[in-house]
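Data availability (excerpt). All sequences and predicted token strings are deposited with the supplementary files. A representative entry, GST N-terminal domain-containing protein, is shown inline so that the format can be inspected without opening the archive.
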Amino acid sequence: MSSSEEGIYVCIQADSTKQFPAAVTSTQQVLMMFKLKGVEPKVLLVLEDDKSILKEISPSGTLPVLFRNVKGSREVYEEVGAIEDFIESLPGPSLKGGKGSLMAKIQNLMLLTKFRSFLNSNNTKAEDTLKLHLEILDKLLASRKTRFVESDSLTFVDSYLLPILLVIRVAGAKKGFQIPATLKNVRLYIEEGDKSQVFQETRPTDSSIIDHWCRR
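Structure token line:
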């Protein structure tokens, strides 16, 4: 596939097989957002040890990165927030939360950061901190009256949260961590996410998650 052809492209990190996307939460997030809008971008897999393909596209060299070729010019979107805004601008229903959205509160929990700390230290303090923030999430989810965070259908906040919870439960289990059974709202939310076709179609395999997150 030539990256000079017109269209929407998304560059994402390849896994160790070099054939599929790596189990990076922002990768699944972006792929979910596109599917929720009914748009299929052209996917370019970039090897972790060979990012030369990005030099002409992304000055920062960060992944994922989205670009659109149209009428001889190229638009580049390097941050997930900018990618989200671009996808939201595409035809279709609005998928961004409005006033009162829980997105900011969920992002402020920094669950992925807390999980990385647990993986790197694997001590009781880091595990307790992760559990504490999952408990806060459980309380946030208890306040909702919908199937997902803000609607009975998936929105952008779910595309952010579900991939993170997936990594925590799969890679966490490999390291002896389980999401407590007492967090019933979190567990119910995960169950609903697992039933979603969009989530399943973008979901990395368990082996890919373990390879990416537990190989260190």
